[in-house]
């Protein structure tokens, strides 16, 4: 299972490094999103309190949705999804490989987005880098776990581009809320680490639930 | 996972519906190892659907497919490890090189040394000098040759080929025919879906003529394929 997941991950990253298609579109969309909010909300150098947390997660969610749509669309275009499903490898391992690829891509995007949000909204996002990384990673895994499953499920649907966000956002609302609250807690002048720990623990619990459900349902959803 | 083995392939009353449209209707046949079965018929006859069912990519709406004594539902991954398919789409990543594509699939099929398996496949396909070029830069015929090696990289018992002659020049077509004959001699069960009757001439052990998802006729050791095809199709309209 680990070997298959690694092969799929390595293949996805190689394809992405060659084309940079998902990275460019995701970043462009997420950065545009942040810039629009900055122009609208930052007045005379003052940003709304806690606004940075929400805007960072909106950018991650919107950019992430684009990335999720493309990752399986690529497999559909050359019908390689059928070849993956024909392989004797465990199908949940294919899901794990795809999930890790999306998480890696979104993590790379976050490396650009966090300093941009911190700069434009004058938010001390980088004052607790370890906790910020924990919040972003656990939130990204939860979002991508559901998104990867839905993206695979909708790969043959004609209106998949419309259906993906319609299905994804309501289910991932708890992840986004916990991510926003945890990030906002990190922006306070006196950071209450117990509160941050609570939100991170909640995010990890959601990750476990979503990943387990996805591993359980991936095989039947992808058969036939 | 222990790869299973089987010596024959049996379809019994296989039907497949897509909504109200019937793509396959009560298809039955049996073929044994060391033989080439041809699925022949016009576009929309159900050839590709039949291959998808045999490949376990699609479940029949009714009827069953048996691989020796095994079924797709019961055998899962162990059965898939013995099936190789070359689809109408080539199942290759255009951004990856030929070597990367073959090594990736060799790894997925559990090859201990995927790179060595890829190199050997590239030698067989005559594309060793283009091994490190992205597949996107290949002609259709070259992609077809890489795709054939991808389908065969795990030495499958059942080989399913959908229009394998598409885009091949004369030399590549002759090489493919020789390869198929080699597979037959090595004991593989080969199923070829094609409407290229001239190229299939003399290659098939059994020809299954399909029309509108039904078997119009099954002919053992067929010769004069084109005239047989015309006669059968005229009779079945």
How would you characterize the overall build of this protein?
- The complex is a heterodimer of chains A (about 220) and B (about 240).
- Chain A is mostly helical and about 220 residues long.
- Chain A is about 85% helix and about 0% strand.
- With about 240 residues, chain B is α/β, with parallel strands linked by helices.
- Helices cover about 35% and strands about 25% of the residues of chain B.
- Chain B has helices spanning about 45-55, 70-80, 100-110, 115-125, 140-150, 170-185, 195-200, 225-235, and strands at about 10-20, 20-30, 35-40, 60-65, 70, 85, 160, 190-195, 205-210, 215-220.
- A six-stranded mixed beta sheet of chain B has the order 6-7-8-3-9-10, with helices on both faces. A four-stranded antiparallel beta sheet of chain B has the order 2-1-4-5.
- In chain B, β1 and β2 (about 20-30) form a beta hairpin.
- In chain B, α3 (about 100-110) crosses α4 and α4 (about 115-125) packs across α5 (about 140-150).
- The mean pLDDT of chain B is about 85.
- The chains are: A mainly alpha (about 220), B alpha/beta (about 240).
- The interface of A and B includes residues 84 and 90 of A.
Characteristic terms for this protein:
heterodimer, A: 224 residues, mainly alpha, 83% helix, B: 237 residues, alpha/beta, Rossmann fold, four-stranded antiparallel β-sheet, 8 helices, 36% helix
